[in-house]
Amino acid sequence: MRQASGCFSLGDVVRKKHRPQRDIFKHYKKTVVTVINAAISHLANQLNQFLKRSFGLTEDIVTVSNIVEPDGSIAPHVNNKLVMLLTNIERDTVPFRKPSNNASGNERSPISAPSLYLNLYVMVAANFSGNSYPEALKLISNTISFFQRQPVFDRHSTPDLDQRIEKLMLDMETLKIQDLNSVWGLLGGKYLPSVLYKVRMITFDAADIVGQVPTLQDPQLSLNH
What pTM, to 2 d.p., does this model score? Predict the structure, then answer.
């Protein structure tokens, strides 16, 4: 039997459908890093503004940085600073929202990248030493107070939140001594006064269409031999 002109075979649909799916993964690889950076930078900026108001500071006190460089040297510009850094990323276990694949016409259906929910483990460490050590304790205490009073950040509470992020929700993590030793061992430094937060529900709202696939239709067969 010969397939009617203008109709797609099942093989055509399957083969063409995989190409846009690869485009979705490329889309994520380009955007995930920038959105994670936007989320952490937003938290650092909000904390920085709070501390500057609280202590009458004229210079930024919070910086987003490693504490120790890969070669073992101390990172530049972290002395006498509150350092905010990412320690881990995990996918949230909440169900993903289904992609919006509404048909646009009779023969093509758009494919949109689905939203992605992540947990970011973000540490705030006070890198002060010597006579400045009491400042470290004071700043960590005020950091805990700030995020206790404002554990949720969205565009209603902070309009400058990146448009790709729906909401950030912070929960303070409690680490046992052995876990704390492991974390600081991985970071490559000695313990500093610090607090660890799980930042939940980072939403990548990739509503833009990344491809189109043929709509699977009932086969129309010709009886001519």
Answer: 0.73
